[in-house]
Design brief:
Immunoglobulin-like; 147 residues; elongated; four-stranded antiparallel beta sheet
Length: 147
Amino acid sequence: TTGASSDSDSSTTVEFMEDNPDGGCHIYRSGYYGTGISVVEGILEVNIIQMMSIQMTESQAENSLVDFVVTCQGSLPTDVCTVVSDPTCQVSKSVVCDPIVVTDECLLTIRRAFEGPGTYCINITLGDDTSQALASALISVNGGEST
């Protein structure tokens, strides 16, 4: 056993190290430790309350645009991520993440482009520094019309 001591500001700190059979050592220290714990509410729930197709002219129809109206409960989100996948929700086709500013009520519209007609799985995740919440839906896109 070895010992070390140091004096600073009239206080004494003593550390002891003890040999261990596995070749390491243990350090024993005495003293007090304090910390604070903050409990945060977080984002509790996300709901897609409406999906609206954006009408475009034939010359603009290379991608179909859909607006998703989303609400949430709990704390206000600071970012939104949208994952567009195949109808089984297994193979991702695109992922888009954006910062958002929500001031007093969690009601926002998210516009996303779809590469062509078909059925897609959409996952919308709202997040902040401490939490995330997810809503999923299947959407059928028919060249500028969605159901």
